[in-house]
Amino acid sequence: MQLFHKLYEKIKKFFKENYIFLIILTVLIFLFYYEFPYVIYKSGGTINLENRVEIAKDYEEEGTFSMSYVTAMKGIAPFILLSYVMPDWDLIPLEDITTSNSYEDVLEVGKEYLSEGIDNAIIAAFNASSYSITIKREINRVIYLGEEAQTDLNIGDEIISVNDKLVNNVEDIKAYLNTLTANERITLKVKNKNHEYERYAILYKDSDDTLKIGAAFSTTYEYETEIPVTVKMKENESGSSGGLMMSLAIYNALTTEDITHGLNIVGTGSILADGTVEEIGGVKYKVLAAAKKKADIFFCPLENYAEALAVKEKRNLKIKIISVKTLQDAINYLESL
């Protein structure tokens, strides 16, 4: 008992003599580890796709195709405070990105978009070339759940069947749902991380009089290509906005003529399997990243052109901004140089 009392007195004395230090240490640990429901976006860099696209080709490219990216950081206090000082750092509430307050869900959705973007880039590039690609199967995964959704679906669930009816694509799901009635409960068989589950969802009627479950899906594919191709990305990379540049890099490898013309070509833009280039977010960060790498040309979707041009003019950047609606637009521009 006496030993315990001595130990207690020592601990008490330590806290009494060091309480200010301990309070400061506790506050610092909180500030650096507690995650507020925000993400901070800032200018990232560029990724040379020659190091990421593995495909046989008969020549060495003189120039480069690169995609620019945004850096996303967790909403910890120091980063949040810096976002009010740094001119190119933006503070975004998590609720504007996902219905979850989880940074992990943001990353999971980003990885789904990346997988979709890679598949679309490969399909579009092969369709624009003289080589064939055969689509064997579509894979549809949940990437978003709206506030109106009444369901136990999870982000990343792959939809296998709805009410025991196998589905081949998202259009099949939509068509079947609209043969049912509002407030009807449906059963979905899904796969997630190699395990199968049974989920439910309650149908509701949207403002356009369409029956929905409040979920959005990404689509990836199983396919065979005439020439093997692999796109390698790192574990911490995500998003679909590199699709256009991936597709250009793959297409260039499939042709007999180098369309880079020795230029440093950077860009951004999501791509659909049919070659359509879609609007992306964060174009200002990506223009700045391209300029830092001294890019000659920056490709962007038509919808992002005004913002990209405004950044160029405001910062007096020496970079040519080219807007495109399709992969073929970008190919035509480069072939015309």
Strand-residue fraction? 25-35%
Estimate nothing, just give the exact number of structural domains: 3
How do the strands of the widest beta sheet line up side by side? 4-1-3-14-17-18
Mean pLDDT, to the nearest integer, reads 86
Under CATH, the topology of the largest domain can be stated as Ribosomal Protein S5, domain 2
The largest sheet is: 6 strands, mixed
How far is the first residue's CA from the last residue's CA? 89 Å
How many beta strands in the DSSP annotation? 18
Percent helix range: 25-40%
The CATH architecture designation of the largest domain is: 2-Layer Sandwich
Poorly predicted regions: none
Query: Which class of secondary structure composition applies to the elements?
Result: alpha+beta
The tally of helices reads: 8
CATH class type of the largest domain: Alpha Beta
N-to-C series of helices and strands: HEEEHEHEEEHEEEEEEHEEEHEHEH
Quaternary organisation of the protein chains: single chain
Radius of gyration: 25 Å
Overall geometry: globular
Could you walk me through the main structural features you see in this protein, from its secondary elements to its overall organization?
With 337 residues, the protein is α+β, with helices and mostly antiparallel strands. The protein folds into three domains: 1-33; 38-132 and 226-335, Ribosomal Protein S5, domain 2 (2-Layer Sandwich), CATH 3.30.230.10; 138-219, PDZ domain (Pdz3 Domain, Roll), CATH 2.30.42.10. The protein has eight helices and 18 strands. It has helices at residues 2-33, 77-83, 103-128, 170-177, 243-254, 283-292, 305-315, 327-335; strands at residues 38-48, 53-55, 64-74, 90-93, 133-145, 158-162, 165-166, 185-192, 195-202, 204-205, 211-212, 215-225, 229-231, 264-267, 270-271, 277-278, 297-301, 320-324. The longest helix has 32 residues, at 2-33. The termini are far apart. 34% of the residues are buried.
